[in-house]
Amino acid sequence: MDYKRLGLKVGLEFHQRLDTHKLFCSCPSELQEGDPDLVVQRSLRPVSGELGYMDPAAAKEALAGKEYKYYHYDRASCLVELDEEPPHQVNQEALETAVILSLMLGCSIVDEVHFMRKTVIDGSNTSGFQRTAMIGHSGKIRVNGEDVEIKGTFLEEEASGIVERTASGAVYKLDRLGIPLIEIATGIMEMDPKSVQEVALEIGKLLRVTGRVQRGLGTIRQDVNISISGGARVEVKGLQDIRMLARVVELEAERQARLIKLKQEITGRLQKVSPRPVDVTAYFRDTECKFIKRGLQKGQRILAIVLPGWKGVLGTELGPGRRFGSEVSDYAKKAGVGGIIHSDEDLSKYPITKEAEAVRKALEMKPDDAFVLVLGEKEKAENALKEAVNRINMAFDGVPAETRRPLPSGATEYMRPMAGEHRMYPETDVPPVMIRSSWVDSLRKRLPADPQKIKDDLMIKYGLSEELADKMVISKNRPLFYKLVETGASPTVIAVTLEQTLKSLKRQGVPTDRLSEDHLSQLFKEFNAGLFSKEAIPDLIKAWSEAPGKSLEKILEETGLMRVSEEEVKKSIALLLGKYPDLLQDKRRAFRVLMGELMKEYRGRIDGSRLSMILRKEIGE
Question: Within a 10 A sphere around the Cβ of 468, how many other Cβ atoms?
C-alpha cells in the first residue's frame, strides 16, 4: 500500500509496568495464582464530570447493566484496591523511575505532579476510574535519523487483570490493580507501519536499559492511534506483542480504506435504515440449531429487522476473517447478546436455511433485501438491534472514531466509542507532589547510558557479535554479564550462556533459578582454567541445577565431563586407526568416520574445533 497517498498517521501510547511495589499502597506488584482469599461483587455506573458532562464511552459501557466480580488476595491487594480506603502516599521509587525515563526521552519535567481521575467503568477498576498524572512533556528521540516527538509521559496505576468475560459481566483479579505504570505518548508519525514498529522497539530499549521495569508478556503494551485521509482516529488498545505492531497498523489502514470505499458505494444508492424489530421466534420452534434451541428453552426471543436493498453489504470484507457484518455484530454484543446472524452469511453452518426462508416470506422481503437476527431476552435483543442499526447507518459516514482491541490475526474488533474530553477530573484524595529542580538535576547526572553506546561497547570492548550485543543491551542479565567477564572467561561464551543456554534449559523444565550468581561465577572461573569445554556447559548447568548444594568438582566427577587431555585423544585415534587400517586410503572419509567416533566418546569433554585440529594433525590431512 502507498501509505503516503493514504495519508497514514500513527501515534503510540506505551504502558510499561515498573519493577516496584504498588503506586498507592505497599502491596507487592506480584501476580498471584490459586484461589482468592475474598470475592467481591459490584456494579458500576457512569457519573458526570466536574463540568456536568458524561463521557460517551462510559455511558455506552453502562448500557448492558453488567456486574463484576473481583478476586482479592491478601498478599497482593488491600483495602485500597477494594476501594474501601483512600490511596496512601505516592510510591517515591515509582515517581523517581518515571522522572528518569522522562529525562531519557528528552522531556521537560513538571514542577508539580497532580493526579487526575480517568473514568473507566468496564469493571477493570473497582473505583470506576484510573489515577494518572503527567510527569514530563515536549520530548523527542531520534530513530533511524528522524526525530520522533514525545508529547508526554505519565505515571498511572495498572488496571485489574481479567479472568473471564461473561454475558452478564466479567471476573477480575485485584493483584494487578495499582501496579505502577509509565505511559509514554508520542506525537503524530507520518511513516509506514514498519518504521512505526522500529520506533516502538527503540522506546522499548530505553525502558529496559534502566533495569527498573518488569519483564515478560503483559508487562508492556501499546495503544495505537491510527487514521488515514478521509478516515477517523481509531485507537487500538492493549497490543502486547510489539512484533505485531506493523501488522496491526497495516490492517487498520486497509480497514479504513475499505470502509471509505463502502461509503462511496452505498451513498446515493441506499438509505439509512430505521426498521422496527419483528418477533420471528415462531419460525424457529423446530430448529436444529443448538444454541438457538438452548436460548428458546430459557425463554429468549428471536427478533429480526429488514434492510431494504442492503443485500451483499454486510458481507463486505474488511480484513482477515472480518466483514462489515462483524462490525455490526460487535456493536450488538454491547447490549449483552452473543452477536447477530445476517443474511449475507452462509446460513447452512448454523443450520437455519429453512427458517431463514420462512422469515423472508413472512416479512415480504425482496430479492435485494437483507436481514439481521438477534437471539436474547426481549429487552436485550431490542437494545442489540438498536446498536446494530446504529452501526449500519454509520456506514454513510465512512469510518467511525472508536476504540478497538487487537485480534491474533492483527485485525481488530470494536470495544467502545472513543473516550471524550469529559472523562478526566481532579483526584481529590492524592495531594500534589512538588518536584524540586535540584532532585531532577541529580537524577539527570546518573541516567543510564544510551542503548547504542551500550551496544557499541559490547561489540568493541567485549567482542560480541551484533546479534548477541542487541540481545544483551535489553537483557536483565547485562549487570550479571559484566560481573562474570571478570572471571576471565570468554565474553561471548558468557553471553550465549546467559541469553540462550539458560533460557533454553528453563523452557525444558530445568530449575536453573536454583543456581546463584556465585554458582555461575565458579562455573566460568573453572571453564577459564580449562577444567571443561564450552560444549559441557549446558550439561553441567542441567546437572548442577538439580543438585545446587554439591561442589562443581563433584558434578564434573558424576557427569564425566572433565576435559580430556590431548594425549588421551591421540591414543584413541591410534586405536581407531588400528581397528580400521584401510581408512587412511581416503583421508577425507577417514576424517568424517573418525570425527564421528571421537565425538561419541568425548562430546562435552573437549571443544569440537580443538578435537578437529588434533585429528587432522594425526592423520596428516
Answer: 21
- Contact (CB, 8 A) for 327 and 407: no
Contact status, residue 242 vs residue 193, Cβ threshold 8 Å: no
| Kind plus residue range of the DSSP H or E element containing 524 | helix 517-528
Read off the pLDDT of residues 188-226 as tens digits, 9 standing for 90 and up. 999 999 999 999 999 999 999 999 999 888 899 999 999
- List of E strands, 411-475: 412-417, 424-426, 433-434
Q: Are 220 and 15 in contact (CB under 8 A)?
A: yes
- Nearest alpha carbon to residue 417 among 232, 262, 239: 232
Alpha helix stretches (DSSP H) within 145-230: 193-209
pLDDT digits (tens, 9 = 90+) for 282-338: 999 999 999 999 999 999 999 999 999 999 999 999 999 999 999 999 999 988 899
Residue 3 C-beta-side C-alpha neighbours within 13 Å: 19
Q: Are 289 and 373 in contact (CB under 8 A)?
A: no
pTM here is: 0.81
CA atoms within a 13 Å half-sphere pointing along the CA-CB vector of 128 = 18
Q: What is the pLDDT of residues 139-148, one digit of tens each?
A: 999 998 899 9
562 burial (CB, 10 Å; 0-12 / 13-18 / 19+) is middle
